[in-house]
Amino acid sequence: MVKMNQFLFKPINPSIVSIYRIIFGCFMCYQMIVYYNLDYTYQFMAGPEILFPYRGLEFMQPLPIFYLKIIHFLLLVSSLLIILGIWYRYAIVFFFIGFTYFSFIDITLYNNHIYLFSLISFVMIFLDADILYSLQRKKTKKKLKNYIPAWNQYLLIFLISLPYFFGGIAKLSSNWLHTDLTKILYNQSNSSLLYDIIPENVFIFLIKYGGLTYDFMIVFLLLNKKTRKIGIALVIIFNITNNSLLFNDIGAFPLLMICSTILFFDSSKVSDYINTLLPNKTNKTLSKKEIKLAKRRIKKEVVHIINSTNDQTEWTKKKKATALIIGVFILFQITIPFRHFLLSNNPEWTGLGSRFAWRMKMQTKEIIDFKMSLIDRSNNASGNIEAETYLTANQLKHIAEDPHNFIILAKYLYFLAEKDYNMNDPKITVDLKVKFNGLETQNLIAPNADLVNLDKNTFAEKSWILPLKKN
Q: What's this model's pTM, rounded to 2 decimal places?
């Protein structure tokens, strides 16, 4: 317990955590502007005819568009308050709740990067991130402490490490190693420069095995002082390559990951460096009164440091509770990505356990043919229904990533069939052919499965999801 106390609650300079508050706030401000340009509140929340809620989050429904726009505006304001460090705790709590609501109202909006943003905003609620470089410090009359417990910085390092480490584990699967996924990623790259400089087979090899190796080793390179500079160079090269050459749908995430390398530095050294950049106060001769006041202030500082040191060595109930909560949070984050072993041998194909597991860029699932049919149980009369017309472009693009979405869609169409077509208890089936990771076109869902009577529960029977056929 003594070692844990020293590790988690060692007093450190708050410089890096405070800087990261500013960095994160800037990126979230940018994200809110991006949402504004996309008209996010209408296009992805209030506008769609049907939403695909997460299991257990069906209660999350879009508010009227007027209130959604107000929340959106307040999210922008809260991100600015986070940057400035004023009313920080209120701002970060509101941002976490509002941003998570926006992000998890529809499963087809899921993105590992957005999930990371939500996690960071949640953790930052509990961090003393406004001690330095904040308006709060300037305006308050209270004596603010000049240190924070080390776990504040360590927990942010842990979150930033998650996508790397579990991304590497995901790349050990056959979907990455034994399909044409990396070839597809190469063919979809943004720059023809790659074709001229690097042979196709060489670059595909670099994507496949270089990406895997990078994910596994980068955190350890950054944690080690001797290899940190190499790690930073690799982070810059890797993220610039991803953003500029390979992918066009990852937004500002690569730049955030580059900026996040500051978390791996020594906070006191960063603080000293920043102080050298700040303008020095001009020297002046102190009066006797000023000297006397300075001595009193120094005496109080010495007493404060002694009390703080004594507090750091004591394993209090509050520290025990904090350590327990941190431990539970970390345990949850490192076990959830492995849940697919209980659910599916191929989470990308079945949609079971593929989310919240950092399985990034692990699938391309192109819909080749999509037909939904209504069948009247009383007379077996049947007809096709153009289900695509009920979906947005984003929903149609991502709906096949989780076959359970078709159960939700079928139940919605079931309601319309009874209401608009006067069909009594219709059966709804889907003929869905997809091309997965360059493999042959095949059905994802059994064509004769009655979607209306299927259970979308995670542990329900899944024989209606057809097994993946490999070439």
A: 0.90
